[in-house]
Design goal:
Blueprint: H1 2-22, H2 30-44, E1 50-53, H3 58-61, E2 73-78, E3 81-92, E4 97-104, E5 110-118, H4 129-132, H5 157-179
Antiparallel strand pairs: 1-2, 2-3, 3-4, 4-5
């Protein structure tokens, strides 16, 4: 009887441990980190840099349309100089998701946006720099509307709408953080 209680207790402890730690925000995968590094190097024209995670208090994160906690918002520096910021996000496509980044100047204007990993067979046009350049120069707090501020893209409507909403939410979230003196 004692052994049975001990086994049940251990099983409950293991289950609780799994549930508690199993849903913790994921770290950036090595493949994604490699693509992030390449995007930073190409955009800011540097070889060496550091990414410093920006801590966002959970009560402030609840006020933002984009998730700002975890492994998605970083300050980028090189040789002691602030280059800007990077937001790493995931957005839905038709059936799957895609990973994207928004690279920002120190004044929180978009320097570049890029789709890093696209998992669909159709709609890859959303990753073209020709279409993505529409986001360059957009400012924190700005709200973007697909089809008005950002042109549509044939064959990638769902992903293009999703990317537009994602970037708009990031810009609005950055303004919330700016108003709270996070930057």
């Amino acid at each position: 009887m004692q052994a049975s209680k001990f086994k049940r207790h251990n099983a409950v402890v293991i289950l609780i441990t799994f549930l508690f730690f199993g849903f913790k925000s994921e770290k950036i995968s090595p493949k994604l980190q490699e693509k992030i590094d390449s995007a930073i190097q190409g955009t800011f024209e540097v070889e060496e840099f550091t990414m410093e995670r920006i801590e966002v208090p959970s009560d402030l994160n609840k006020q933002t349309p984009s998730e700002m906690g975890g492994e998605n918002l970083f300050k980028i520096t090189s040789l002691g100089k602030e280059l800007g910021y990077i937001y790493v996000g995931v957005a839905p496509s038709l059936k799957k998701t895609f990973d994207y980044v928004v690279l920002l100047n120190p004044d929180l204007n978009i320097k570049k946006s890029k789709i890093l990993i696209y998992r669909e067979d159709h709609g890859r046009q959303v990753g073209s720099q020709r279409w993505l350049k529409q986001f360059i120069g957009r400012k924190s707090g700005e709200k973007l509307v697909y089809g008005e501020d950002i042109d549509g893209i044939s064959g990638a409507t769902v992903s293009a709408k999703s990317m537009t909403l994602a970037v708009s939410n990031v810009l609005e979230s950055l303004q919330v953080l700016k108003n709270a003196n996070v930057f």
